[in-house]
Amino acid sequence: MGRIGRRGFVAGAAMVALATTGAGRAGAVRRKPRAFRGMWLATVANRDWPSRTGLTAETQRAELLKHLDTAVERRLNAVVLQVRPTADALWPSPYEPWAQCLTGAQGRDPGWDPLGTAVREAHARGLELHAWFNPYRVANHTDPTRLSAEHPARLHPEWVLPYGGKLYYNPGLPEVRAFVQDAMLDAVRRYDVDAVHWDDYFYPYPVAGQAFADDAAYERHGADFPDRASWRRHNIDLLVSETAARIKEIKKHVAFGVSPFGVWRNAATDPQGSETRAGVQTYDDLYADTRKWIREGWLDYVIPQLYWHIGFAAVDYAKLLPWWDSVVRNTDVALYVGEALYKCGDPAQPAAWQDPRELSRHLELARRYPTVGGHCFFSAKEVAADRIGAMAAVVADHYPTRVRPPR
């Protein structure tokens, strides 16, 4: 018999309480079920918000509040706000400059506190605010002189590597790992965020014909490992485990979640992997052993990005979902599913994504798996615009009323 995790114990205790108090009998008042209903709100390159750089503080604030109001209208209960898009900050950080996406000039004070406002206004609307950080991405270009003069990447050029047309902090340097944790956790200390959230970027996605030039770091720190891949995975394991511990030291109630690329490994690579033929595998290409993080209990939740339609031959949503169900089963890690709302109605996508009910079918399928505690939609711009009515179909079919988040 599998072990009973904390969440399972609490659920069982609640059922006992219902039975002993009579609250579970017919006619008794029942509590509404809980579920995670989230949307990502991306700021990198002004993807969702602010709509462009250089807006006044008042206009930026108004746009932000409109996104929060849209989340409420769609009966969502969580907003995952990107607060550290490119090693810069949406709050007055002592570690990193103000984010470029706000004013157009990295390091320029926008005249208000976006993260503080977001937390306060989200909570006023009954929304959780998950602070979304990118640990290692520095810039979407390779020119350090374009960074603000006080940027840590300019003060410590030895921390930075160019790759694939972008700049990254080197995950193989212990001093980098300590710094990025300090920079991110500053927001946890200052604000009443509900969670620390990371997306799918650890080591960068592979670029054909290019090598990530971490030879010197590997020579200095990798002697105890059989190969570079094992050493790189160890570096990311340390980032995850250390951050998990530090969050709980600061504020025990703050959750820690990751939204990885949806395929850990293909079964052809590893019999423990999923029945998929994905071109990227997080374990092998991003050096992110997401399955291990769940088994070790380092995460409170995981939101795999299952950004493929039902029936897609190479990566079938209907085959990948049960794999993730099996991974989280009998653990204390909550499973929510990342949904590709941005693909709905995109003429460049296959026919399935032209059907406004594709995502609704995803949620219907997920109901078969008790471990699935909700869904998160990428991203806010599409939640608002809803190009072909796919989000409206999800709301009509699955979100008849608002519910509270799982915690």
In words, what does this structure look like?
There is one protein chain. With 407 residues, this protein is α/β, with parallel strands linked by helices. The protein has helices at 6-21, 57-73, 100-103, 114-124, 152-155, 174-190, 215-221, 228-250, 282-286, 290-296, 317-328, 358-366, 380-385, 390-398; strands spanning 36-41, 78-84, 128-133, 137-139, 160-163, 166-169, 195-198, 255-258, 301-302, 334-339, 372-377. The strands form 2 sheets. Strands 1-2-3-7-8-9-10-11 form an 8-stranded parallel β-barrel, surrounded by 6 helices. Strands 4-6-5 form a 3-stranded antiparallel sheet, with no helix packed on it. It is globular.
Lay out the secondary structure.
Elements: H1 6-21, E1 36-41, H2 57-73, E2 78-84, H3 100-103, H4 114-124, E3 128-133, E4 137-139, H5 152-155, E5 160-163, E6 166-169, H6 174-190, E7 195-198, H7 215-221, H8 228-250, E8 255-258, H9 282-286, H10 290-296, E9 301-302, H11 317-328, E10 334-339, H12 358-366, E11 372-377, H13 380-385, H14 390-398
Parallel strand pairs: 1-2, 1-11, 2-3, 3-7, 7-8, 8-9, 9-10, 10-11
Antiparallel strand pairs: 4-6, 5-6
Helix pairs in contact: 2-4, 6-8, 12-14
| Dominant shape | globular
- Oligomeric form of this entry? single chain
Strand order of the main beta sheet, please? Answer: 1-2-3-7-8-9-10-11
Give me the secondary-structure category: alpha/beta
Percent helix range? 25-40%
Number of helices: 14
H/E element order: HEHEHHEEHEEHEHHEHHEHEHEHH
Give the percentage of residues in beta strands.
5-15%
Number of E-type strands:
11
Mean pLDDT: 93
Q: Return Rg in Å.
A: 21 Å
Largest sheet: 8 strands, parallel, barrel
Q: Could you give the distance between the termini?
A: 26 Å
Uncertain residue ranges: 1-29
